Amino acid sequence: MQDQAGNFNGRARIFHISDREQIKELRNQILRLHGFEVESMVYSTEAVEQVAEKGYDLVLIDVETNARMQNAQELCDSMKRIVPELRVAFLCNEVVSIRGGCPHGVIHATFDPQALVCGVTEALR
Question: Which of 12, 19, 25, 80 is an S-S bond match for 57, by CB 3.0 to 4.6 Å?
Fold first, then answer.
C-alpha cells in the first residue's frame, strides 16, 4: 500500500456503508478515480458479515447526524469484535460530534472530494 517514501499508492480495498444512496455512489466514484477498490452497502447486519468474509483495508461508515452516532458506533464495535485489527473511519460533517473510541479516524468531507481522499489516505496510514 505504501511505497518506500511513505506515499500511498491507492490500491486499498475500502468498504463504504451509507444510507444516502446518491452521496454513497458519488463518494465511491471519487475514491475509484483515485485508484481505490470500493464496495458499498446500506447500514445492515449484512455489513458485518461482509467485512468478516472479505479482507478490507478500511471501512468507511457514514454518520450523517448525531442521531446516527450510536448506530455507527455499534456497527463499528460489531465489526471489530470479529476483525479486531480492522481500520474504521467515520465520514461526517462538521456538526457531528464523535464521542466513541471505535474509529481510527474521523473524516470531515462533506461535499469536498479532496478532503475525502486525504482523509481516507490518512486513515490507511
Answer: 12
Q: How many CB atoms lie within 10 A of CB 105?
A: 18
- Kindly report whether the global pTM for this prediction surpasses the value 0.85: no
- Whole-angstrom Cα distance, residue 87 to residue 26? 22
**Which domains does the chain show, CATH number per domain?**
13-124 (3.40.50.2300)
> Which residues contact residue 117 at a Cβ distance below 8 angstroms, ignoring those fewer than 6 apart?
30, 31, 34
Distance in angstroms (rounded) separating the CA atoms of residues 63 and 68: 6
Residue with cell 481522499: 117
The alpha carbon of residue 85 and the mean position of all alpha carbons in its chain are separated, in whole angstroms, by: 14
